[in-house]
Amino acid sequence: FQVKSENKKTIWNTEEVPEGSEFDDTWDPREKPEYEISFKQHVGTEDVFFGMTGKDPSTACCEDIVIKIKLPETKYSDITLDIQDKVLDLRTPKKKLLLHLPYPVNSKEGRARFLSEEEILEVTLRVSRKLDFMNFS
């Protein structure tokens, strides 16, 4: 096995390093917050009554990933959030979450809102899929 590289001194290609590994910091003492991942899909009457589009409740038919992160004793201004195609990186003064996402997402079309009464950050990300027989858009 030989790695082909433009620079003979490199021992791996950048494609071999998983996305998000640059954020891993095993020495960071901040605790990991509780979080919940759920999936959301848009369903119309043609799906509910007629089953015309062939959608089912599986994650293969979902368009969005919704991540709810519990952040007690945190202010909105203290939250730093970075989203890439396969990684969510959240940092606060007391908490740190590096989450490898189950599906690639469109990092430019996400939205986040902080529910201050519940102390929860809700992040909604659009799943980026190739077109197939289930996903037409």
Automatic annotation (TrEMBL):
Residue span(s) of domain PIH1D1/2/3 CS-like: 32-127
Chain residue ranges for the region called Disordered: 1-27
Extent of Acidic residues compositional bias: 16-26
CC per GO annotation: cytoplasm
Sample GO molecular function, one term: dynein intermediate chain binding
GO terms under biological process: axonemal dynein complex assembly; flagellated sperm motility
InterPro entries associated with the record: DNAAF6 (IPR026697), PIH1D1/2/3_CS-like (IPR041442)
Family, similarity comment: Belongs to the PIH1 family.
UniProt protein name: PIHD3 protein
Lineage: Eukaryota, Metazoa, Chordata, Craniata, Vertebrata
